[in-house]
Amino acid sequence: AEGQNVKYQWYIYELGKSVPITATLDSPTYTYTLTEETNGRRIYCEITDKYGKSLTTNTVTVGTALKIVSQPINSTAELNEIVSTSVKAEGCGLKYQWYERNAGTSYWARTKDTDDTYSCTLTKFRDGKEVYCEITDAFGNKVRSRSATLGLPLEILRQPINSSAPMGQIARTTLKASGSGLRYRWFIRYKGDIYWYSTSSVSPTYSCVINERTKGSMLYCEVTDVFGKKRKTNTVLISEKR
Fold it and tell me: Residue 188 CA to chain centroid, in angstroms?
C-alpha cells in the first residue's frame, strides 16, 4: 500500500469460523506454516496511515492445490444390501457432488450424495450403474473423478450338467450365473484331443449337433462380469445317446 507511515494489521478466519481473530504481525506480507489445521483459512489485511485513515483488502483463501489422491473403485453387494464407493482428495474447502447413470443409459443425473462416499441400496434396477464425483475447492477449482461401477458379485448359481442326444440331434447344457454385465464364452475339447478350443457360443446355453466329431467332447464355460472378474464352470461331457 502507498501512504504515510502505514501500518498493517492482519486478520484470520479460522476454518469454520465467522468471526476473525487478530494476527500479531505488522508487515505487508503474512507468512505461516500450512498445516491440516490452517489449510483453507481465510485472511485479510487492514491498512492504516498516520492520519488514522484505513483501508481493508480483499479476503483471500490460502491452502493446498486440489488433487485426487484415491479414485472411486468398482464395488459389489448382494441384492437389497448397501453398496458404496469413495473418493479421497486433497485441497481446502472441498465440496463433493456425485453423479450417476444406470446401465444402458447415456445421461448422468445429479445425486443427493455430497460427501466423499456414494452409497445406495443395490436393486435389480441399480445393478451395473456407474457413478463419479465432481470435487470443488475453496478457490472454485473443479476436478472430476473416474467413474466406478456398482453391481452384483459374480457367482455361478447353477453349474452346467452332462448332456446327450441321439446321433444327428442337438444336445444342450445350461448354466446360471449372477453378476453385472455378464459375458459368456464356451470352450470345447474334442474326444482324443489335448487342446481346448474357444467356441462361438456366447450365451448361458451351449448346444451342438451330435456327430462323430462332437460326441465324447468335454465342455466348460468362462463367465466374465463388467468388473473383469472371471469364473470358470465345472467341465461336463457331451455324449451320444443310444
Answer: 36
Q: Are 143 and 111 in contact (CB under 8 A)?
A: no
Quote the pTM value.
0.69
Burial class (CB in 10 A: 0-12, 13-18, 19+), 129: buried
DSSP classification of residue 27: S
The grid cell for 229 is: 472378474
Are 65 and 139 a contacting pair, CB within 8 Å? Answer: no
- Give, as one character, the DSSP assignment of residue 153: P
Query: What is the per-residue pLDDT across 185-213, written as a single tens digit (0 to 9) for each?
Result: 999 999 999 999 999 999 999 999 999 99
Chain position carrying cell 460326441: 215
Following DSSP, what letter does each residue of 175-239 receive, concatenated? -EEESSS-EEEEEEE-TT----EE-S--SSEEEEE--TTTTTEEEEEEEE-TTS-EEEPPPEEEE
List the one residue out of 93, 138, 84 whose CA is nearest residue 111.
84
Beta bridge pairs of residue 164 = 239
